[in-house]
Design a protein that fits this description.
It is built from 22 helices and 24 strands. The chain is of the alpha+beta class and 712 residues long. It has 3 domains: 169 residues, no CATH class; 94 residues, Pdz3 Domain, CATH 2.30.42.10; 350 residues, 2-enoyl-CoA Hydratase, Chain A, domain 1, CATH 3.90.226.10. The strands form 5 sheets. Strands 1, 3, 15, 16, 17, 20 and 21 form a 7-stranded mixed beta sheet that branches. It has a 7-stranded mixed beta sheet with strand order 22-19-18-14-13-12-24, sandwiched between helices. Strands 5, 6, 7, 8, 9 and 10 form a 6-stranded antiparallel beta sheet that branches. Helix 3 crosses helix 9. It is globular, with a radius of gyration of 28 Å. This is Tail-specific protease. One of its GO terms (molecular function) is endopeptidase activity. Keywords: Hydrolase, Membrane, Protease, Serine protease, Transmembrane, Transmembrane helix.
Length: 712
């Protein structure tokens, strides 16, 4: 995504004033008691949305219907809990939600919560009953796996039959796993004793029961704050998919993704059998330095310093983490059970934890006598909070390019695949590394004129051959950079049929800062991320909805999936504005010739041909969402899919590996740093057999070998 966090400035001040005004209206002139948290949050949020959103909604019956439809999908997307009679009860409020939010009531929310709580408990008893008896896998029947095609059950009998098929489907898949495990067993080992078919079926049901029990345990732990967060976010999402309400814990997760940093103990945790288990210790973190917490430890209780500890056994993982994380310099005391059964209290002083995988990294690819730089950027991170040690993706990419130039690379492949975006400012600065001064992107609010964001630095840090790789999960800031490179004809864009199609800019407002002290008793409220602008290419077209179409399109194993902005609920539409004034790159790559050569290589490649075949088969299967619940039929389909997968894997293994080496500058730094060594090893391992990267390297080589043509 592309977003801006505002701290000061006229725009921020105006929107903050709107929130404050809305909150004061909740108190003043009514003589009524102080409002509840839900009323304050929803009214203040809607007031801000109506004033600041790119395309504000009227709070009317149409708004009400949008909220109703989306909330119903959110609370029961599988259509396995609510009955048709329940939906009919809820539908009475379909055009009344707007009136309820205006007056601060919540009848629809209360009824939906009551119905879901009741049905969840009933369904839990239902699946447990179904899994208590053997299941017959000889019956030739089917299960609908596409929930969009399903209907809410007419009554409890229909619901039981639907759950019977659902449970049977899950048990069948687990039974196939058990059968595969048995086929691989070692008869010489006592622990690998043979199981009878009856025992395997029972084991499969046992595994499914555990899976459902864990899922329902999480669902039943949802509290009033969880429900309020879901409700507020649903309302926000009816404006567009990227306008969101962040509960405090969700905002923290978002910040981690955008900065690569958080404050805590530095341990990776997982929930297993109702226990919070330490899965890994992040090297260099507070836990690593303290030394007593180990992988495999079970965290039983958590105390904030000398305070009374809180039990986290049986607690949902995200809630347990909220107790364990905390501000740098504060102490947390963990009561843990060691693998030997002993119990120990471990005090840890929290510190900043750096998630290295977030950051840019580069390598050298030696191919056919050419030295080509590889640059990978997972997200457009930025130091939004001006924290000491915070990093900027634009600065990091600049440093990586300098290191690549020091290695005398002859071309660069810049990999933005599956990069969901981030800082708009960094995207603009990054484009400026490859072009001289000029416009990079245009932004426009709902009512205002377009503003051109320029690269004002006439220096070009890198002027050689460039290929920028994208896929359908490259979004927002990635699309800004790709579109600018394409419009300037500065390099070659390669990838799937189009990028994601998110062409909007968001701003984040901290509601606790916006709302006055009168509401301190019911804070925290969280944050609101709202769409305030659309961005447009310098050629005038929007990337919204349509994305960026690469110059060279490669076969994509996921192209059969319906993914992208156009598939999201209530997405803003494509439009265009006037083009900005700019001059294309004088040494523009000869796209037509490069595309012709690439197409010939792809057509001759057995690996790409297989990818194309797989895509065609998956397209044909995509609409056939009814799966057989007969074990023999399922196993036959599974065997066919496994054979196809093996064929592809074998071709990949047989393909020549790319020669990927770390940079000399990095080798000097990481000689004694095992964390960085492992990070670079992981990157190389995932790339050596990457056929799309190999083709991108070939296109760079074609540019190196092509005679330079300068336009004047």
């Amino acid at each position: 995504m592309s977003f801006i966090r505002l701290k000061i400035g006229l725009y921020a001040a105006v929107v903050m004033a709107v929130f404050v005004l809305a909150s004061y209206k909740l108190y003043r002139g009514t003589g009524a008691p102080a409002p509840e948290k839900e009323e304050v949050l929803i009214k203040a949020m809607l007031q801000g949305l109506s004033q600041a959103h790119y395309q504000p909604e009227q709070i009317d019956d149409n708004f009400s219907k949008r909220v109703f439809d989306l909330y119903l999908k959110r609370i029961d997307y599988s259509k396995k809990f609510l009955l048709q009679s329940d939906v009919a009860q809820l539908r009475k409020y379909q055009t009344e939600i707007d009136d309820q939010v205006k007056r601060g009531s919540h009848e629809f929310l209360e009824l939906s919560t009551q119905l879901m709580d009741q049905r969840t408990k009933e369904v839990q008893a239902l699946y447990r009953d179904l899994l208590s008896k053997p299941i017959d896998f000889m019956v030739d029947e089917t299960f609908q796996t596409d929930f969009d095609k399903a209907q809410f059950p007419a009554d409890k009998a229909a619901q039981r039959d639907e759950w019977r098929r659902y449970v049977k489907y899950h048990t069948m898949t687990r039974l196939a796993e058990v059968q595969d495990e048995q086929a691989k067993r070692d008869p010489k080992k006592a622990t690998d004793a043979a199981m009878t078919p009856v025992q395997m079926e029972a084991e499969a049901r046992k595994r499914v029961l555990k899976y459902f029990d864990e899922q329902f345990s999480d669902m039943l732990q949802n509290d009033a704050n969880d429900r309020l967060a879901l409700w507020a976010n649903t309302i926000a999402n009816t404006y567009d998919p990227h306008t969101e309400y962040f509960a405090p814990k969700d905002k923290e997760t978002f910040d981690i993704a955008m900065t690569g940093r958080f404050e805590g103990i530095g341990a990776t945790l997982q929930e297993k059998d109702g226990q919070i288990k330490v899965a890994d210790i992040i090297p260099g973190s507070a836990s690593y330095r303290q030394g007593q917490l180990k992988t495999g430890d079970l965290i039983q209780r958590v105390a904030q310093g000398a305070a009374e500890p809180v039990s986290v056994e049986g607690m949902r993982l995200d809630k347990a983490i909220s107790f364990i994380r905390g501000a740098k310099g504060t102490e947390v005391r963990l009561t843990v059970k060691k693998p030997d059964g002993s119990t120990q209290v471990i005090p840890i002083i929290r510190d900043v934890v750096v998630v290295e995988e977030t950051y840019a990294q580069s390598a050298i690819i030696n191919e056919g006598g050419k030295k080509i730089g590889y640059l990978r950027l997972p997200t457009f991170y930025a130091n939004f909070n001006d924290e000491k040690g915070g990093r900027s993706s634009a600065e990091d990419v600049k440093k990586e390019i300098e290191k690549l130039k020091a290695e005398n690379v002859q071309g660069i492949v810049f990999d933005l695949r599956t990069n969901g975006g981030g800082s708009l400012t960094d995207a603009v600065e990054m484009a400026g590394l490859f072009i001289d001064s000029g416009p990079v992107v245009q932004v426009r609010s709902g009512q205002g004129s377009a503003q051109v964001l320029n690269d004002r630095d006439p220096r070009v840090q890198y002027d050689g051959p460039l290929v920028l790789m994208v896929n359908k999960y490259s979004a927002s800031a990635s699309e800004i950079l790709a579109a600018a490179i394409q419009d300037y004809k500065r390099g070659v864009i390669m990838g799937s049929t189009s990028t994601y199609g998110k062409g909007t800019v968001q701003r984040i407002f901290d509601l606790d800062d916006a709302l006055p002290a009168e509401f301190n008793a019911i804070k925290p409220f969280g944050s609101l991320k709202l769409t305030t602008q659309k961005f447009y290419r310098i050629n005038g077209g929007s990337t919204q909805f349509k994305g960026v179409v690469p110059d060279i399109i490669l076969p994509d194993a996921y192209s059969y999936l319906d993914q992208g902005e156009k598939e999201a609920d209530y997405a803003l539409k494509w439009d265009e504005i006037s083009a900005a004034r700019y001059r294309t790159w004088p040494q523009a790559p000869q796209i037509d010739k490069l595309k012709t050569a690439s197409t010939a290589r792809v057509a001759a490649s057995p690996s790409f041909k297989l990818v194309t075949d797989i895509v065609e088969r998956m397209r044909k299967r995509k609409d056939d969402t009814n799966v057989s619940l007969k074990l023999t039929s399922y196993r036959a389909e599974q065997a066919q899919a496994k054979a196809e997968s093996k064929k592809y894997d074998d071709l990949q293994k047989a393909a020549p590996a790319l020669n990927i080496a770390p940079l000399a500058a990095d080798l000097r730094v990481v000689q004694s740093d095992t964390v960085q060594q492992n990070r670079r090893r992981r990157m190389s391992k995932n790339l050596v057999k990457d056929i799309n990267l190999r083709e991108a390297v070939a296109v760079v080589k074609d540019q190196i070998d092509a005679p330079q043509v300068t336009k004047r």
